[in-house]
Amino acid sequence: DALPIYCNRGTVNAKLNKPYDAIEDCSNAIKLDDTYLKPYLRRAQSYTDTEQHEEAVRDYDKVYQSEKTKEHKQLLKNAQLELKKSKRKDYYRILGVDKNASEDDIKKAYRKRALMHHPDRHSGATTDVQKEEEKKCKEIGRA
Fold first, then answer.
1. Position 130 pLDDT exceeds 90
2. Is the pTM value of this prediction over 0.70?
3. Which class for 139: exposed (0-12), middle (13-18), buried (19 or more C-beta within 10 A)?
């Protein structure tokens, strides 16, 4: 039976930090038996690891609907929280700095990004490109 092979390989891939391979193996296991919850749990965690939060919520919800345990409810709540957080703007990412970057690093990154995306630098570009760069510059200003 291929089901345990896919499921175990998905677990190994997840532990080897290959979440996309883990997702594929778990999806194959689910195709063989969509009532077996283990591959849903592994795939949901891999979705979370790859910041595919909506898919993770969907898988955790499927698990919770099948087995309403406290643990499954908590996993679903955590995934929903991560999804909510992912929809917020991450100003560190916009500036291209680490979350624990120093104030000086943040200022340097701001100056660099602001210069790179300043509308005056793109005056010869198409209007679409100009609007996109202007939008990025405003976003950087908010960060």
1. no
2. no
3. middle
